[in-house]
Amino acid sequence: MGVHVTRLLRIWSREPSSLIMVIIAPLAYLFIMVKLFGALAESLTGHFDANAGVILVVFSWTFILAVTGTGQVYEERLHGFHDRLQTMPSRYVVVLLARAIGEFLRIFVMCIVVTAVADLCTSSSVLTDAPLKAVFVFVLVFLAAGAFGTYVGFSITSSQGSVVFMPLIMVMMFINTALLPASMYRPGLAAIARNAPITAASQALSGSAILPIIFWCGGIFVVCLAGLVALSRRRQRGVVGA
């Protein structure tokens, strides 16, 4: 497994696009969130919670990273790389888990950079207020996103297959109570905003509720892990049958 994880990290370290997606783009998103949406939230409600803004950036960009990495998996599958991996003595599920770990590490780097810069340059204090709680919540989110991105990457049948998930991420970014209270939404959207995953993450870090984020991330992780195991067994049977 270590060999596969190292291979992924080596590939990402050599790609300028990885640097842009992991470091530059989320920092630009953070700037837009604080300066533009933060000012909008303050004008509408009289208050802007910088911690909630950072949580929104980290959570949503975590899943954006996970989804954008699926194209690389599809290209490797298309060129037969994973067909060769299936003939190796180790189980194919090791390759899937290594990919999930690699995604976890890439997302972890993004989170540390964004939260550190936010704590230094804004009024945010995500890491300094309750560091252990922040690490716990972020690890839950990273595990869910890593498993999600890996499952999507190994199950799509075209390079555009992952694009269908981007609208869901956009909805998740804008319909939540991290920046605006539920009363600011229409009745139908207010219920969604109260129970959105970013709302759950914000509640967990503020100390108001921890179970919603556990249910959200745990559910995503378990479903995607079960899907990865099923994919591995199906591919392994195909190799043995051949």
Describe this entry's structure for a reader.
This protein is mainly alpha-helical. The protein has one domain. Helix content is 79%, strand content 0%. The chain is built from twelve helices and no strands. Helix 6 crosses helix 8 and helix 8 packs parallel to helix 12. The two termini are 25 Å apart. The model has no long low-confidence stretch (mean pLDDT 82). InterPro entries: ABC2_TM, ABC_2_transport. It is found in: Membrane. Its main location: membrane.
**Low-confidence residue ranges:** none
> How many domains comprise the coordinates?
1
Counting helices, strands and paired strands, the structural category is mainly alpha
| Number of continuous helical runs | 12
Q: Largest sheet, if any?
A: none
Based on CA atoms alone, the radius of gyration comes out at: 19 Å
Binned, the helix content reads over 70%
Distance between the termini: 25 Å
Give me the strand/helix succession.
HHHHHHHHHHHH
Q: What's the oligomerization state?
A: single chain
Structural key phrases:
membrane, ABC transporter, globular, ABC_2_transport, ABC-type transporter activity, 242 residues, 12 helices, mainly alpha, single chain
